[in-house]
Amino acid sequence: MVCKNFFSTRPVMEEDCLWGEGHIRAVENLLKAVIRGNTSVLLGPRRVGKTSVVSVMAEKLARKRGHHYIYFNLSRFIGAKALSIADIEPNRTSLRMITTSKSYSLSLKGLSVEVRKTSIEEFTSDFSRLVRLLSENAKVGVLIFDEAQVLARLKNVDFRGLFQEITDSYPNISLVFTGSMPGMLMEYLNPEAERAGFMRSAETSTLERWSEEESLSFLKAGFESYGIKISDELELRRASAELGGIPGFLSYFGMTVVNLIRGGLPAKEALPRALEESRRYALSEWKRDIEAFLNVYNSEVYVEVLEVLASSYPTALRGAQVYRELERIGKAPKRVQHIYKYLGTLKKAGFIREAEGAYWIDDPLLRKVIRALP
Question: Which of 42, 166, 184, 241 has its CA 20 to 30 A from that of 331?
Fold first, then answer.
């Protein structure tokens, strides 16, 4: 089967449309972990393709007789200060007896039961019933929580207790978590690493951005699938570099090029125009991510730290150097030790990287957005 929708800003569902050795390998690794009954965690920046990977894995699993999944997409709650139990609903499932709606329902042997989630006790009971139904009707089942770090903001319910119940009581059900804020997700799932829990056998991996060569081959193969020949390889390499090798942004670029050429624009003009439009799109997405983060972590110090690191690139700075820069402009916290709290949170959120005690901002467009912040 050949991919019929190569460039798309929506998550990939078909295995034939998944690109990149790391992405294909991640599907296989997740599938093997689910079959083994292990918990899996897939980390990576926003728009790198985590949802595509877990979606392809889920559909591939469901093609096996007696294998089923339930998928929860929590990405729309990134930036929310609090999460309600009413927001926890399946978005997709391969079990026909479970419908996905605001008040999801279970239907078994002609009997339909509506889950209204009116109280914590009722929600916990009904969620356990949902898991039990999956276990009873699946040889192998998996619950997928996309952008699971937002569960830390669920009011009055510690979901980790429910996860522990699943791993302790249902050997045929596995858990899969994804997160674009790696440190925050891992801290939520495993706050005390020395204690045994549902994370004791977890298989954790990170989905990386595409290399320049992977980006280039993706764009070439994509244009070819639309019957378009692009000979300007330099412009494609420029797109890969400026869009940071992020699959979601490169797919947007590819579709924009296709639309411009179909509209009558020659490729020579379409490529730079599409890159400019894609750059604006990527900048707006990064800006939205930062705003979502600041909505939860409401302190101007985070902005100041990001601005210092963006301005210093390509030089990585140690915490004391960041503090001195903030002190120079009168924005430093009271103590130098406090700067490490801000740096640590930004690292957990995936905005900055750290190696050997030095910090920097990797993504070129993220640096540009930060420099433009008011």
Answer: 184
By CB atoms closer than 10 A (0-12, 13-18, 19+), residue 226 is: middle
Burial of 194: CB neighbours in 10 Å, binned 0-12, 13-18, 19+:
exposed
| Phi–psi pair at 176, nearest 5 degrees | -130, 130
- List Cβ neighbours of 80 (8 Å cut-off, separation of 6 or more): 150, 153, 295, 296
- What's the rounded Cα separation, in Å, for the pair 164 and 341? 30
Pairwise CA distance, residues 182 & 188, whole Å: 10
Q: Are 367 and 327 in contact (CB under 8 A)?
A: no
Could you tell me which of 72, 58, 80 has the C-alpha nearest to residue 145? Answer: 72
Residue labelled with tokens 């079959």: 35
Per-residue model confidence as pLDDT tens digits over 119-157: 788 788 888 888 999 999 999 999 999 999 999 998 888
Angle in degrees, 0-180, between the axes of helices 233-242 and 364-371, rounded to the nearest 10: 60
In this prediction, residue 99 has a pLDDT band, given cuts at 50, 70 and 90, of low
Question: Is 38 exposed, middle or buried, given 0-12, 13-18 or 19+ CB atoms closer than 10 A?
Answer: middle
Q: How many helices (H) and strands (E) does the chain have?
A: 13, 12
pLDDT at 108 over 60: no
The dihedral formed by the CA atoms of 326, 330, 335 and 340, expressed in degrees to the nearest 10: -20
